[in-house]
Amino acid sequence: MTPSFSRRTLIGASTALGMIARPGRVRGSTPNAKPAVLGGEPVRKKAFPGWPIVGDEDVSALVDVLRSGAWYRGSGDRVRRFEAEWADRLGVSHCVATANGTSALITAMNALEVGPGDEVIVPPYTFVATVNAVLIQHALPVFVDVDPETSQIDASKIAGAITDRTRAIVPVHIGGNPADLDAVMAVARDRGIPVVEDACQAHLAEWRGKKVGTIGDLGCFSFQNSKNLTSGEGGAVLTDDARLHAECLSFQNNGRSEGDMPGTFGRNGANLRLTEFQGALLSTQLTRLESQARTREQNAASLSALLDEIPGVTPARMHEGTTRNAYHLYMFRYDPAEFAGLPRSGFLKAMAAEGIPASGGYSPLYREPFLRRTLESRAFRASFPSSTLAEYEERLDLPGNERLCEEAVWLTQSMLLGTRQDMEQVAEAIRKIRAHASEIAKA
Ligand SMILES: *Cc1c(COP(=O)(O)O)cnc(C)c1O
After folding, report:
1. 252 lines ligand 1 (CB under 6 A)
2. Which of these, 136, 189, 267, 389, could form a disulfide with 255 (CB 3.0-4.6 Å)?
3. What is the mean pLDDT of the chain?
4. How far does residue 125's CA lie from ligand 1's centre (Å)?
5. What's the whole-number mean pLDDT along residues 29-47?
6. Measuring from atom 7 of ligand 1, which residue has the nearest CA?
7. With a 6 A CB cut-off, is 221 part of the ligand 1 pocket?
8. Whose C-alpha lies nearest to ligand 1, atom 2?
9. Ligand 1 mean position to 220 CA, how many Å?
10. Residue 30: its pLDDT value, please?
Protein backbone atom coordinates (compact mmCIF):
# COMPACT_ATOMS: atom_id res chain seq x y z
CA MET A 1 0.00 0.00 0.00
CA THR A 2 1.18 3.52 -0.79
CA PRO A 3 1.48 5.80 2.26
CA SER A 4 -1.63 7.96 2.57
CA PHE A 5 0.32 11.22 2.21
CA SER A 6 1.71 10.42 -1.25
CA ARG A 7 -1.56 8.79 -2.27
CA ARG A 8 -3.49 11.98 -1.54
CA THR A 9 -0.93 13.96 -3.53
CA LEU A 10 -1.39 11.60 -6.46
CA ILE A 11 -5.18 11.84 -6.30
CA GLY A 12 -5.00 15.63 -6.16
CA ALA A 13 -2.69 15.81 -9.15
CA SER A 14 -4.63 13.48 -11.41
CA THR A 15 -8.01 14.96 -10.53
CA ALA A 16 -6.73 18.43 -11.34
CA LEU A 17 -5.36 17.11 -14.62
CA GLY A 18 -8.67 15.54 -15.49
CA MET A 19 -10.59 18.73 -14.79
CA ILE A 20 -8.26 21.34 -16.21
CA ALA A 21 -6.14 19.78 -18.91
CA ARG A 22 -8.90 17.96 -20.76
CA PRO A 23 -12.12 19.95 -20.55
CA GLY A 24 -13.27 19.00 -24.07
CA ARG A 25 -13.06 15.30 -23.29
CA VAL A 26 -15.94 15.36 -20.84
CA ARG A 27 -19.18 15.20 -22.78
CA GLY A 28 -22.49 16.53 -21.53
CA SER A 29 -23.30 16.35 -17.86
CA THR A 30 -22.87 12.59 -17.44
CA PRO A 31 -19.49 12.60 -15.69
CA ASN A 32 -21.03 14.72 -12.95
CA ALA A 33 -23.68 12.09 -12.32
CA LYS A 34 -23.00 9.95 -9.26
CA PRO A 35 -21.36 6.60 -10.08
CA ALA A 36 -23.63 3.61 -9.59
CA VAL A 37 -21.10 2.02 -7.23
CA LEU A 38 -21.68 5.05 -4.92
CA GLY A 39 -25.46 4.76 -5.23
CA GLY A 40 -26.10 6.71 -8.45
CA GLU A 41 -28.00 5.62 -11.57
CA PRO A 42 -26.18 3.07 -13.73
CA VAL A 43 -25.22 4.15 -17.26
CA ARG A 44 -26.87 1.02 -18.60
CA LYS A 45 -29.73 -1.16 -17.37
CA LYS A 46 -30.17 -3.33 -20.45
CA ALA A 47 -28.25 -6.57 -20.85
CA PHE A 48 -25.69 -6.86 -23.66
CA PRO A 49 -26.46 -9.30 -26.51
CA GLY A 50 -26.51 -12.90 -25.28
CA TRP A 51 -24.46 -15.82 -26.59
CA PRO A 52 -24.81 -18.23 -28.31
CA ILE A 53 -27.35 -17.07 -30.88
CA VAL A 54 -29.94 -19.65 -31.99
CA GLY A 55 -32.10 -19.52 -35.12
CA ASP A 56 -34.69 -21.82 -36.65
CA GLU A 57 -32.03 -23.29 -39.01
CA ASP A 58 -30.06 -24.50 -35.98
CA VAL A 59 -33.14 -26.18 -34.54
CA SER A 60 -34.08 -27.96 -37.77
CA ALA A 61 -30.47 -29.03 -38.45
CA LEU A 62 -30.30 -30.65 -35.01
CA VAL A 63 -33.72 -32.27 -35.34
CA ASP A 64 -32.72 -33.68 -38.76
CA VAL A 65 -29.68 -35.38 -37.23
CA LEU A 66 -31.74 -36.59 -34.30
CA ARG A 67 -34.38 -38.17 -36.54
CA SER A 68 -31.78 -39.67 -38.91
CA GLY A 69 -30.26 -41.82 -36.17
CA ALA A 70 -26.82 -41.07 -37.67
CA TRP A 71 -25.36 -39.42 -34.60
CA TYR A 72 -21.63 -40.03 -34.97
CA ARG A 73 -19.24 -39.28 -37.82
CA GLY A 74 -18.97 -42.89 -38.85
CA SER A 75 -22.64 -43.04 -39.80
CA GLY A 76 -23.34 -39.55 -41.15
CA ASP A 77 -21.84 -36.84 -43.32
CA ARG A 78 -22.42 -33.67 -41.24
CA VAL A 79 -18.98 -33.59 -39.65
CA ARG A 80 -17.32 -34.15 -43.01
CA ARG A 81 -19.46 -31.45 -44.59
CA PHE A 82 -18.50 -28.98 -41.90
CA GLU A 83 -14.80 -29.89 -42.26
CA ALA A 84 -15.00 -29.08 -45.98
CA GLU A 85 -16.83 -25.79 -45.32
CA TRP A 86 -14.40 -24.62 -42.64
CA ALA A 87 -11.35 -25.53 -44.74
CA ASP A 88 -12.90 -23.70 -47.69
CA ARG A 89 -13.74 -20.63 -45.61
CA LEU A 90 -10.19 -20.42 -44.31
CA GLY A 91 -8.54 -21.19 -47.63
CA VAL A 92 -6.67 -24.33 -46.53
CA SER A 93 -6.56 -27.86 -48.00
CA HIS A 94 -7.44 -29.98 -44.97
CA CYS A 95 -9.55 -29.78 -41.83
CA VAL A 96 -10.08 -32.45 -39.16
CA ALA A 97 -12.84 -31.80 -36.64
CA THR A 98 -12.19 -32.80 -33.01
CA ALA A 99 -14.19 -32.99 -29.80
CA ASN A 100 -12.88 -29.60 -28.59
CA GLY A 101 -9.99 -27.16 -28.91
CA THR A 102 -7.90 -28.95 -26.30
CA SER A 103 -8.12 -32.19 -28.29
CA ALA A 104 -7.29 -30.26 -31.48
CA LEU A 105 -4.05 -29.13 -29.81
CA ILE A 106 -3.33 -32.64 -28.50
CA THR A 107 -3.96 -34.04 -31.99
CA ALA A 108 -1.52 -31.50 -33.48
CA MET A 109 1.13 -32.41 -30.87
CA ASN A 110 0.73 -36.10 -31.74
CA ALA A 111 0.91 -35.43 -35.49
CA LEU A 112 4.27 -33.72 -34.85
CA GLU A 113 5.41 -36.50 -32.49
CA VAL A 114 5.98 -34.12 -29.59
CA GLY A 115 7.01 -36.42 -26.78
CA PRO A 116 8.99 -37.00 -23.56
CA GLY A 117 12.14 -34.90 -23.38
CA ASP A 118 10.92 -32.37 -25.95
CA GLU A 119 10.36 -28.67 -25.37
CA VAL A 120 7.54 -26.59 -26.86
CA ILE A 121 7.57 -22.80 -26.89
CA VAL A 122 4.33 -21.18 -25.67
CA PRO A 123 3.30 -17.75 -24.40
CA PRO A 124 2.25 -17.57 -20.74
CA TYR A 125 -0.74 -15.31 -21.52
CA THR A 126 -3.14 -18.01 -22.69
CA PHE A 127 -5.82 -20.44 -21.63
CA VAL A 128 -4.40 -23.38 -19.65
CA ALA A 129 -5.22 -25.83 -22.49
CA THR A 130 -2.30 -24.51 -24.60
CA VAL A 131 0.07 -25.57 -21.81
CA ASN A 132 -1.72 -28.80 -20.92
CA ALA A 133 -1.54 -30.01 -24.53
CA VAL A 134 2.26 -29.93 -24.13
CA LEU A 135 2.38 -31.40 -20.62
CA ILE A 136 0.11 -34.29 -21.56
CA GLN A 137 2.76 -35.39 -24.09
CA HIS A 138 5.30 -35.32 -21.23
CA ALA A 139 6.98 -32.41 -22.97
CA LEU A 140 8.14 -29.21 -21.32
CA PRO A 141 6.31 -25.93 -22.01
CA VAL A 142 8.93 -23.18 -22.37
CA PHE A 143 7.32 -19.82 -21.73
CA VAL A 144 8.37 -16.91 -23.94
CA ASP A 145 7.17 -13.60 -22.53
CA VAL A 146 4.37 -11.53 -24.02
CA ASP A 147 4.42 -7.89 -25.05
CA PRO A 148 1.88 -6.15 -22.78
CA GLU A 149 1.06 -3.64 -25.54
CA THR A 150 -0.32 -6.32 -27.89
CA SER A 151 -1.00 -9.13 -25.33
CA GLN A 152 0.77 -11.45 -27.81
CA ILE A 153 3.98 -13.48 -27.64
CA ASP A 154 7.10 -11.29 -27.96
CA ALA A 155 8.50 -12.99 -31.07
CA SER A 156 11.87 -11.27 -30.68
CA LYS A 157 12.44 -13.47 -27.61
CA ILE A 158 11.73 -16.82 -29.30
CA ALA A 159 15.21 -17.38 -30.76
CA GLY A 160 16.75 -17.09 -27.29
CA ALA A 161 14.46 -19.83 -25.95
CA ILE A 162 15.20 -22.41 -28.66
CA THR A 163 17.36 -25.40 -27.70
CA ASP A 164 18.16 -28.63 -29.54
CA ARG A 165 15.12 -30.14 -27.78
CA THR A 166 12.63 -27.57 -29.15
CA ARG A 167 10.06 -29.55 -31.13
CA ALA A 168 7.36 -26.93 -31.82
CA ILE A 169 6.48 -23.26 -31.43
CA VAL A 170 2.88 -22.41 -30.48
CA PRO A 171 1.90 -18.78 -31.07
CA VAL A 172 -1.53 -18.05 -29.57
CA HIS A 173 -3.69 -15.32 -31.15
CA ILE A 174 -5.12 -14.25 -27.85
CA GLY A 175 -8.42 -12.40 -27.97
CA GLY A 176 -8.48 -12.93 -31.73
CA ASN A 177 -5.66 -10.39 -32.20
CA PRO A 178 -3.00 -12.05 -34.40
CA ALA A 179 0.48 -12.73 -33.01
CA ASP A 180 3.37 -11.40 -35.11
CA LEU A 181 3.35 -14.27 -37.60
CA ASP A 182 6.08 -12.77 -39.85
CA ALA A 183 8.52 -12.86 -36.95
CA VAL A 184 7.31 -16.23 -35.59
CA MET A 185 7.48 -17.95 -39.00
CA ALA A 186 10.88 -16.42 -39.81
CA VAL A 187 12.54 -17.79 -36.66
CA ALA A 188 10.74 -21.14 -37.00
CA ARG A 189 11.71 -21.64 -40.65
CA ASP A 190 15.27 -20.51 -39.95
CA ARG A 191 15.63 -23.19 -37.26
CA GLY A 192 13.46 -25.83 -38.97
CA ILE A 193 10.92 -26.00 -36.15
CA PRO A 194 7.22 -26.66 -36.85
CA VAL A 195 4.62 -24.04 -35.86
CA VAL A 196 1.21 -24.90 -34.36
CA GLU A 197 -1.04 -21.84 -34.28
CA ASP A 198 -3.43 -21.80 -31.35
CA ALA A 199 -6.24 -19.96 -33.16
CA CYS A 200 -8.87 -21.09 -30.64
CA GLN A 201 -9.92 -17.43 -30.17
CA ALA A 202 -9.26 -16.23 -33.70
CA HIS A 203 -11.99 -17.38 -36.12
CA LEU A 204 -11.61 -15.39 -39.39
CA ALA A 205 -8.72 -13.27 -38.08
CA GLU A 206 -6.20 -12.47 -40.82
CA TRP A 207 -2.50 -11.84 -41.19
CA ARG A 208 -1.63 -9.99 -44.42
CA GLY A 209 -4.91 -11.14 -45.97
CA LYS A 210 -4.46 -14.81 -45.07
CA LYS A 211 -6.56 -16.45 -42.36
CA VAL A 212 -4.72 -17.19 -39.12
CA GLY A 213 -4.64 -20.90 -38.34
CA THR A 214 -3.52 -21.56 -41.94
CA ILE A 215 -0.06 -20.00 -41.80
CA GLY A 216 1.77 -22.35 -39.42
CA ASP A 217 2.23 -26.06 -40.17
CA LEU A 218 -0.95 -26.77 -38.21
CA GLY A 219 -3.69 -24.49 -36.86
CA CYS A 220 -6.09 -25.31 -34.03
CA PHE A 221 -9.58 -23.93 -33.40
CA SER A 222 -12.09 -24.29 -30.59
CA PHE A 223 -15.88 -24.25 -30.93
CA GLN A 224 -16.52 -24.22 -27.19
CA ASN A 225 -19.62 -22.36 -25.98
CA SER A 226 -17.93 -18.97 -25.51
CA LYS A 227 -16.07 -18.98 -28.83
CA ASN A 228 -17.05 -16.89 -31.88
CA LEU A 229 -18.17 -20.05 -33.70
CA THR A 230 -19.67 -22.66 -31.40
CA SER A 231 -21.41 -25.99 -30.99
CA GLY A 232 -21.07 -26.06 -27.20
CA GLU A 233 -17.90 -28.14 -27.48
CA GLY A 234 -15.90 -28.73 -30.63
CA GLY A 235 -12.57 -28.15 -32.31
CA ALA A 236 -10.60 -28.47 -35.53
CA VAL A 237 -7.06 -28.89 -36.81
CA LEU A 238 -6.16 -27.36 -40.18
CA THR A 239 -3.19 -27.93 -42.43
CA ASP A 240 -2.04 -27.79 -46.04
CA ASP A 241 0.22 -30.80 -45.43
CA ALA A 242 -1.42 -34.07 -46.59
CA ARG A 243 0.79 -36.21 -44.34
CA LEU A 244 0.03 -34.18 -41.21
CA HIS A 245 -3.65 -34.24 -42.15
CA ALA A 246 -3.63 -38.04 -42.39
CA GLU A 247 -1.95 -38.27 -38.96
CA CYS A 248 -4.54 -35.95 -37.39
CA LEU A 249 -7.48 -37.74 -39.00
CA SER A 250 -6.18 -41.06 -37.79
CA PHE A 251 -5.25 -39.89 -34.28
CA GLN A 252 -8.72 -38.49 -33.47
CA ASN A 253 -10.31 -41.78 -34.60
CA ASN A 254 -8.49 -44.33 -32.43
CA GLY A 255 -5.62 -44.55 -34.92
CA ARG A 256 -7.67 -45.90 -37.82
CA SER A 257 -5.55 -45.74 -40.96
CA GLU A 258 -8.12 -44.17 -43.25
CA GLY A 259 -9.62 -42.07 -40.51
CA ASP A 260 -13.00 -43.63 -41.22
CA MET A 261 -14.80 -46.81 -40.17
CA PRO A 262 -13.96 -49.61 -39.99
CA GLY A 263 -10.32 -49.09 -41.08
CA THR A 264 -7.17 -50.75 -39.86
CA PHE A 265 -5.25 -49.46 -36.85
CA GLY A 266 -2.12 -47.82 -38.25
CA ARG A 267 -1.04 -45.77 -35.24
CA ASN A 268 -2.00 -45.02 -31.67
CA GLY A 269 -4.85 -42.62 -31.14
CA ALA A 270 -7.87 -41.68 -29.09
CA ASN A 271 -11.53 -41.10 -29.69
CA LEU A 272 -11.67 -37.33 -30.07
CA ARG A 273 -14.43 -37.31 -32.66
CA LEU A 274 -16.96 -34.52 -33.08
CA THR A 275 -20.58 -35.70 -33.16
CA GLU A 276 -22.93 -35.25 -36.10
CA PHE A 277 -25.09 -32.95 -33.96
CA GLN A 278 -22.16 -30.62 -33.50
CA GLY A 279 -21.15 -30.85 -37.17
CA ALA A 280 -24.67 -29.89 -38.28
CA LEU A 281 -24.87 -27.04 -35.76
CA LEU A 282 -21.48 -25.64 -36.78
CA SER A 283 -22.59 -25.50 -40.42
CA THR A 284 -25.66 -23.41 -39.58
CA GLN A 285 -23.75 -21.23 -37.09
CA LEU A 286 -21.09 -20.69 -39.76
CA THR A 287 -23.61 -18.97 -42.05
CA ARG A 288 -23.71 -16.06 -39.53
CA LEU A 289 -20.03 -15.84 -38.64
CA GLU A 290 -18.99 -13.35 -41.32
CA SER A 291 -21.67 -10.79 -40.55
CA GLN A 292 -21.08 -11.17 -36.80
CA ALA A 293 -17.35 -10.69 -37.36
CA ARG A 294 -18.08 -7.45 -39.26
CA THR A 295 -20.31 -6.15 -36.47
CA ARG A 296 -17.61 -6.91 -33.90
CA GLU A 297 -14.99 -5.11 -35.99
CA GLN A 298 -17.16 -2.01 -36.44
CA ASN A 299 -18.07 -1.80 -32.77
CA ALA A 300 -14.46 -2.43 -31.71
CA ALA A 301 -13.29 0.38 -34.00
CA SER A 302 -15.87 2.75 -32.48
CA LEU A 303 -14.90 1.74 -28.97
CA SER A 304 -11.17 2.14 -29.64
CA ALA A 305 -11.76 5.66 -31.00
CA LEU A 306 -13.71 6.53 -27.84
CA LEU A 307 -11.14 4.99 -25.48
CA ASP A 308 -8.30 6.80 -27.24
CA GLU A 309 -9.81 9.99 -25.84
CA ILE A 310 -9.74 8.78 -22.23
CA PRO A 311 -6.40 8.87 -20.38
CA GLY A 312 -5.55 5.67 -18.52
CA VAL A 313 -7.25 3.14 -20.83
CA THR A 314 -5.22 1.79 -23.75
CA PRO A 315 -6.68 -0.65 -26.30
CA ALA A 316 -4.44 -3.63 -27.20
CA ARG A 317 -2.19 -2.67 -30.11
CA MET A 318 -2.34 -4.75 -33.30
CA HIS A 319 0.77 -5.85 -35.15
CA GLU A 320 1.36 -4.15 -38.48
CA GLY A 321 0.56 -7.33 -40.50
CA THR A 322 -2.92 -7.65 -38.98
CA THR A 323 -5.58 -7.28 -41.66
CA ARG A 324 -8.40 -8.59 -39.48
CA ASN A 325 -8.89 -8.99 -35.75
CA ALA A 326 -11.50 -11.59 -34.70
CA TYR A 327 -12.23 -9.79 -31.40
CA HIS A 328 -13.01 -12.82 -29.31
CA LEU A 329 -12.13 -10.38 -26.57
CA TYR A 330 -11.95 -6.62 -26.58
CA MET A 331 -8.79 -6.06 -24.56
CA PHE A 332 -7.45 -2.85 -23.07
CA ARG A 333 -5.03 -1.95 -20.30
CA TYR A 334 -6.01 0.08 -17.25
CA ASP A 335 -3.64 2.51 -15.52
CA PRO A 336 -4.70 3.29 -11.93
CA ALA A 337 -2.42 6.36 -11.86
CA GLU A 338 -4.84 8.05 -14.28
CA PHE A 339 -7.78 7.02 -12.06
CA ALA A 340 -6.68 8.61 -8.78
CA GLY A 341 -5.00 5.37 -7.70
CA LEU A 342 -8.23 3.35 -7.94
CA PRO A 343 -7.04 -0.27 -8.29
CA ARG A 344 -8.22 -2.37 -11.24
CA SER A 345 -10.45 -4.45 -8.96
CA GLY A 346 -12.27 -1.28 -7.86
CA PHE A 347 -12.56 -0.16 -11.48
CA LEU A 348 -14.08 -3.53 -12.52
CA LYS A 349 -16.54 -3.38 -9.64
CA ALA A 350 -17.55 0.16 -10.59
CA MET A 351 -17.96 -0.91 -14.25
CA ALA A 352 -20.21 -3.81 -13.19
CA ALA A 353 -22.31 -1.38 -11.14
CA GLU A 354 -22.71 0.80 -14.27
CA GLY A 355 -24.07 -2.24 -16.12
CA ILE A 356 -20.85 -2.99 -18.02
CA PRO A 357 -19.50 -6.48 -17.22
CA ALA A 358 -15.71 -6.54 -17.59
CA SER A 359 -13.06 -8.93 -16.29
CA GLY A 360 -9.38 -8.74 -15.39
CA GLY A 361 -8.54 -11.70 -17.64
CA TYR A 362 -5.83 -14.27 -16.99
CA SER A 363 -3.68 -14.58 -13.86
CA PRO A 364 -0.12 -15.95 -14.17
CA LEU A 365 -0.59 -19.61 -15.08
CA TYR A 366 2.81 -20.69 -13.78
CA ARG A 367 1.74 -19.87 -10.23
CA GLU A 368 -1.03 -22.48 -10.36
CA PRO A 369 -0.21 -25.82 -8.71
CA PHE A 370 -0.59 -27.93 -11.87
CA LEU A 371 2.79 -27.09 -13.36
CA ARG A 372 4.98 -28.10 -10.41
CA ARG A 373 2.89 -31.18 -9.79
CA THR A 374 3.36 -32.33 -13.39
CA LEU A 375 7.07 -31.57 -13.36
CA GLU A 376 7.39 -33.71 -10.21
CA SER A 377 5.49 -36.60 -11.79
CA ARG A 378 7.04 -39.99 -12.54
CA ALA A 379 6.84 -39.42 -16.30
CA PHE A 380 8.66 -36.08 -16.12
CA ARG A 381 11.34 -37.40 -13.75
CA ALA A 382 11.93 -40.22 -16.23
CA SER A 383 11.98 -37.86 -19.25
CA PHE A 384 14.13 -34.91 -18.16
CA PRO A 385 17.43 -34.45 -16.31
CA SER A 386 16.75 -33.48 -12.69
CA SER A 387 18.72 -30.26 -13.21
CA THR A 388 16.29 -29.17 -15.99
CA LEU A 389 13.31 -29.65 -13.68
CA ALA A 390 15.05 -28.03 -10.71
CA GLU A 391 15.95 -24.92 -12.69
CA TYR A 392 12.61 -24.65 -14.46
CA GLU A 393 10.85 -22.40 -11.94
CA GLU A 394 13.91 -20.19 -11.46
CA ARG A 395 13.89 -19.47 -15.19
CA LEU A 396 10.33 -18.16 -15.12
CA ASP A 397 11.16 -14.50 -15.61
CA LEU A 398 8.14 -13.03 -17.40
CA PRO A 399 7.80 -9.32 -16.55
CA GLY A 400 5.63 -8.58 -19.60
CA ASN A 401 3.12 -11.21 -18.56
CA GLU A 402 3.19 -10.08 -14.92
CA ARG A 403 2.38 -6.55 -16.00
CA LEU A 404 -0.34 -7.59 -18.44
CA CYS A 405 -2.03 -9.81 -15.84
CA GLU A 406 -2.19 -6.76 -13.53
CA GLU A 407 -3.36 -4.21 -16.11
CA ALA A 408 -5.63 -6.05 -18.56
CA VAL A 409 -9.37 -5.51 -18.82
CA TRP A 410 -11.50 -7.71 -21.07
CA LEU A 411 -14.93 -7.33 -22.60
CA THR A 412 -16.36 -10.48 -24.17
CA GLN A 413 -17.10 -10.83 -27.89
CA SER A 414 -20.89 -10.85 -27.56
CA MET A 415 -20.78 -7.32 -26.08
CA LEU A 416 -19.53 -6.23 -29.51
CA LEU A 417 -22.59 -7.63 -31.29
CA GLY A 418 -24.87 -4.75 -30.34
CA THR A 419 -25.00 -1.12 -31.43
CA ARG A 420 -22.66 1.86 -31.52
CA GLN A 421 -24.69 3.27 -28.65
CA ASP A 422 -23.62 0.27 -26.54
CA MET A 423 -20.01 1.26 -27.15
CA GLU A 424 -20.76 4.87 -26.21
CA GLN A 425 -22.18 3.60 -22.93
CA VAL A 426 -19.00 1.62 -22.22
CA ALA A 427 -16.96 4.79 -22.76
CA GLU A 428 -19.45 6.85 -20.76
CA ALA A 429 -19.14 4.49 -17.79
CA ILE A 430 -15.34 4.74 -17.91
CA ARG A 431 -15.42 8.56 -18.08
CA LYS A 432 -17.84 8.69 -15.17
CA ILE A 433 -15.70 6.38 -13.04
CA ARG A 434 -12.59 8.39 -13.90
CA ALA A 435 -14.23 11.69 -12.96
CA HIS A 436 -15.16 10.24 -9.55
CA ALA A 437 -12.19 7.92 -9.12
CA SER A 438 -10.92 9.48 -5.90
CA GLU A 439 -14.33 9.19 -4.20
CA ILE A 440 -14.65 5.57 -5.38
CA ALA A 441 -11.13 4.79 -4.20
CA LYS A 442 -11.92 6.17 -0.73
CA ALA A 443 -15.33 4.48 -0.43
C1 LIG B 1 -10.70 -22.16 -25.72
C2 LIG B 1 -9.24 -22.27 -25.88
C3 LIG B 1 -8.58 -23.50 -25.97
C4 LIG B 1 -9.24 -24.82 -25.71
O5 LIG B 1 -10.42 -25.01 -26.30
P6 LIG B 1 -11.55 -25.97 -25.66
O7 LIG B 1 -12.49 -26.12 -26.81
O8 LIG B 1 -12.15 -25.24 -24.51
O9 LIG B 1 -10.92 -27.24 -25.28
C10 LIG B 1 -7.23 -23.49 -26.22
N11 LIG B 1 -6.54 -22.34 -26.35
C12 LIG B 1 -7.13 -21.15 -26.24
C13 LIG B 1 -6.30 -19.92 -26.40
C14 LIG B 1 -8.49 -21.07 -25.99
O15 LIG B 1 -9.06 -19.88 -25.85
Report:
1. no
2. 267
3. 93
4. 13
5. 89
6. 101
7. no
8. 200
9. 9
10. 60
222 C-alpha to ligand 1 centroid (Å):
5
Q: Does the Cβ of 198 fall within 6 Å of ligand 1?
A: yes
Model confidence over 351-371: pLDDT tens digits?
A: 999 999 999 999 999 999 999
pLDDT digits (tens, 9 = 90+) for 183-214: 999 999 999 999 999 999 999 999 999 999 99
Complete domains list, the chain, with CATH: 8-52+289-361+404-442 (3.90.1150.10), 56-283 (3.40.640.10)
Per cent of the chain over pLDDT 90 is: 89
Q: Can you give the three-state secondary structure of the chain, one letter per residue?
A: CCCHHHHHHHHHHHHHHHHHHCHHHCCCCHHHCCCHHHCCCCCCCCCCCCCCCCCHHHHHHHHHHHHHCCCECCCCCHHHHHHHHHHHHHCCCEEEEECCHHHHHHHHHHHCCCCCCCEEEECCCCCHHHHHHHHCCCCEEEECCEECCCCEECHHHCHHHCCCCEEEECCECHHHCCCCHHHHHHHHHHHCCCEEEECCCCCCCEECCEECCCCCCEEEEECCCCCCCCCCCCEEEEECCHHHHHHHHHHCECCECCCCCCCCECCCCCECCCEHHHHHHHHHHHHHHHHHHHHHHHHHHHHHHHHCCCCCEEECCCCCCEEECCCCEEEEEECHHHHCCCCHHHHHHHHHHCCCCCECCCCCHHHCHHHHHHHCCHHHHHHCCHHHHHHHCCCCCCHHHHHHHHHEEEEEHHHHHCCHHHHHHHHHHHHHHHHCHHHHHHC
Q: Is 101 in the pocket of ligand 1 (CB under 6 A)?
A: yes
Q: Return the active site residues.
A: 227
